[in-house]
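Record passed on here:
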Amino acid sequence: MFDVGASELLMIVIVAVVVIGPKDMPMALRTAGRWIGKMRKMSNHFRSGIDAMVREAELEEMERKWREQNEAIMKASPQLPSMNPTADDMQAPAVSEPALSQPEPAVSPVADDAPEKSAEVKTENRQAELHLPPPPP
């Protein structure tokens, strides 16, 4: 980074020993190490803050693209009747007093194969409602 070679490092050590002295050299090196550690922490904190801002900006951009694509898909695809309730569907049907007082009749007995047929009819009705092709034979 600073491109300090071996000869330059040796010159710095000799000057430091002459200026600081051999007795105070360990304390000076500890102090220099602490300062370097603080500078590294600050630079890492700064770098992580910048990275977080970049990630947030990228996420916002991706969310905007996804929202635009979703809107385009929703406009292009037909709306299903069950997915888009109208105001008429929201209102409760008007019920007269006699209908409330009379209980519903119980399910009438039918043949054994009736549940299978009713399930098939429900499936076909659901497929027609969703505009799906019939299942393969």
